[in-house]
Every structure is written in structure tokens, then in C-alpha cells.
Design brief:
2 domains, Hypothetical protein af1432, two-stranded antiparallel sheet
């Protein structure tokens, strides 16, 4: 039996293993939600135990060895890292896939800027399919949000991160395959209206009025580009248009609220904001993934639809204290 601290247990939302007291009596079962009453029960025990899971530990060690080998053999091509940004050493997405997703997205946007819309659309659809496929492969092995994060220049990796998170959330909320494909594509394209903006935007409160006016047009621009250039559905275009709207009507560009905001936009609004916070692309001081989850909960249902908000918070472990700097090689 392995000793488990009460703090480690309480940091979870759902208990990942059976819990025993000092006499070997099971007091809680794996999969139970840690309600206030159960947290009190945990705190009342000086010592708690879980069974040693040798298979899980062997699997984890094997995965670490594979990842180390992969990095050592991939690291010879440092030019890709310089060009597309650092690798996330804690990610469940393998190193080659991290580079491919980032390079493919950058190339797709470059092609789109050259007005080769048909080719760009094909490239974007391929990226969507890869994200869905890779997410399915790793879904059962992901415990922390930090294990999904791509690193690099925000404008290049934010749409990818938002799409990855949205696919995980859509699966959590039990959307069907066709809906997940639309959600993933909407997430990939939600910020395409920024393509006409210059420079990085981290905090709109520090912009000039002219810059803020231009920035706040990107949902409208995105809606138009998706409909008229890429010729995709209104479901996809509406994500770009509404991802900054809020449930209480304080969002933009139209200040709509509640069910006036499309379901897909409600999902992507949560994932978009979370990735912005974990990329230091807001004016909030967030240093790790758990703090970002707390900030989401603080914003609450005033800002975000309760179903995707609480689905997202409970999607993976709440106890992810990994700092952003810890991810980089």
C-alpha cells in the first residue's frame, strides 16, 4: 500500500483510485466525486492509503522511455524548434505531431494570405482531421491540461490549442462525430478575422481607441471570411462571430446573451479563454493551469454557459499545478 496525502486527494475533483484507512478498510471508491462531505472524511484521517498499481507505473515508465528516445532522435532537427516554437516535454501529443500541427497551420495561413483559398481550405480540413484523430489516440492517457498544450507564437498555436481543447470538451459532452468535426473546425477558424491585424494583442485595455476598434471587428471579419471566402456553413461562421459574446450580454460585438449564442460558440468561448489565460494573453496574472481553472470558475455562468464551463472544469484533473515554464525543453 502507498501512503497518500490528504492534500493530494483534495486537489482532485474525482477520486482516481480506491482509498483505504490505516486498518486496510476501503473508505472511498475510485470514480467518486469529492463532495464537501467526503473531503471532510478525508481530512479526519491522519493517514490514508491506495493500492500500488504496478501495471500503471510500468506503463508510465515505458512512456517516459519512449518519449526520451523520441526527443533524443528528433532533437537533431533544431531548426524546426527555432522556426515553430519549443516542444512541450509533458505533452501526450508526440514531438513529431507537435511540429506537424504547428507547421501545417502556419503554412495553411500563408496560403490563405496568398488568396489560394481552395488549397488553404483543404489544408485546414486536414489539420482538423489530424487533431481529431490524435485526440482520440491519446484521450484515455491524458490527466492534465498541461499535457495538451502546444507552445510557440500565440497567433500560430492558439487556434490549434483551442481546437484540441474543444475536441476534448465535445467528447466529454457526448457530441456526435459530425458535430465534433464542426466544433473542431469552428475552433481552428474562430480567430481567422485577426489575419488582417498587425502585431500581437495581449490586453485590449492597453490599446488605443483606434486599435481597439480594429481589434473588435475581428469576429465580424472572421464571419465574412468563413462564409464568403472559405464557403463553410453558418454553424462554423457563427463561432467566429460569437466567441467573445458572454452569457450575461456583456460581450461583443453585438452584446447578445444566453441561448442567442450558438452551442458551438459557447463551447469554444470557454476553450478560447482558457488557452489565452495559459498563454499569458490576458491581463490576468495566471502562473499555472489550476489558477486558470479557478479564474474560469470565478467568471462563472455570468460569462460562460454552465454546461460547457463545468464540463470543461471536470474534464481533467483540477490539481494541475504545472507552471508554463516547466513545459519547455
Amino acid at each position: 500500500m502507498i501512503i497518500v496525502s490528504s492534500e493530494e486527494i483534495i486537489s482532485q475533483k474525482v477520486l482516481p483510485y480506491d482509498l483505504y484507512d490505516e486498518k486496510g478498510t476501503k473508505i472511498l471508491e475510485a470514480g467518486e466525486i469529492l463532495t464537501p462531505g467526503k473531503i471532510l472524511l478525508v481530512r479526519n484521517h491522519e493517514v490514508l492509503y491506495r493500492k500500488e498499481d504496478k501495471k500503471a507505473e510500468e506503463k508510465e515508465q515505458k512512456q517516459k522511455s519512449i518519449k526520451k528516445y523520441a526527443y533524443e532522435n528528433y532533437a537533431v532537427n533544431q531548426e524546426d524548434i527555432k522556426k515553430y516554437g519549443p516542444l512541450n516535454k509533458k505533452s501526450k501529443i508526440d514531438f513529431q505531431a507537435q511540429v506537424e500541427l504547428k507547421s501545417n497551420y502556419i503554412n495553411a495561413m500563408s496560403v490563405f494570405n496568398q488568396s489560394d483559398v481552395i488549397r488553404a481550405k483543404s489544408m485546414i480540413l486536414e489539420i482538423r482531421d489530424k487533431i481529431i484523430k490524435d485526440s482520440q489516440l491519446i484521450r484515455k492517457n491524458v490527466r492534465f491540461f498541461s499535457e495538451l498544450k502546444l507552445l510557440g507564437e500565440h497567433k500560430n498555436i492558439h487556434p490549434l490549442n483551442t481546437a484540441i481543447l474543444s475536441v476534448f470538451l465535445a467528447n466529454k459532452l457526448e457530441y456526435n462525430e459530425a458535430q465534433i468535426m464542426e466544433i473542431a473546425l469552428g475552433a481552428l477558424l474562430h480567430d481567422i478575422g485577426k489575419i488582417q491585424l498587425t502585431g500581437e494583442v495581449s490586453d485590449i485595455t492597453k490599446m488605443t481607441k483606434d486599435e481597439e476598434m480594429a481589434y473588435k471587428k475581428h469576429p465580424l471579419t472572421g464571419h465574412r471570411l468563413i462564409k464568403t471566402e472559405l464557403k463553410l456553413s453558418e454553424n462554423i461562421a457563427r463561432v467566429a462571430l460569437q466567441h467573445h459574446e458572454r452569457m450575461d450580454g456583456t460581450g461583443w460585438p453585438y452584446g447578445i446573451s444566453s441561448t442567442m449564442i450558438s452551442e458551438y460558440a459557447q463551447i469554444i468561448a470557454v476553450c478560447n479563454h482558457f488557452d489565452n489565460m495559459t498563454s499569458s494573453a490576458t491581463n490576468l496574472e495566471i502562473s499555472n493551469f489550476r489558477e486558470a481553472l479557478r479564474a474560469l470558475l470565478k467568471a462563472g455562468s455570468r460569462a460562460f454557459s454552465p454546461k460547457p464551463l463545468y464540463g470543461f472544469v471536470h474534464m481533467l484533473s483540477y490539481g494541475d499545478t504545472t507552471s508554463f515554464e516547466e513545459l519547455k525543453f
